[in-house]
Specification:
Strand content: 5-15%
Number of strands: 2
Strand order of the largest sheet: 1-2
Distance between the termini: 67 Å
Length: 84
Amino acid sequence: MGPRQLLTVGGLCATFAVSASWVYKHTKNGARDALPVVRLGCKRLRFDPDKIALYIRSRERHRPDATLDSSDGLLESAERGISH
């Protein structure tokens, strides 16, 4: 098998559910936190799907109201420092 197919802007938008304006904002020269991009000429952009997936995962934010699952929700008295 050969190298992976690079994504176009449209392909990136469809694959990762982002808007074209978001893509262009993150590919401008000097953009803060820029996307990993392959530039083919002055206006043609292509993207390696593996690098984009890593980029998105590394910047993913979790909901601030999310909770962590606990095993049973109870701690033993000794673990909490409570003596009877």
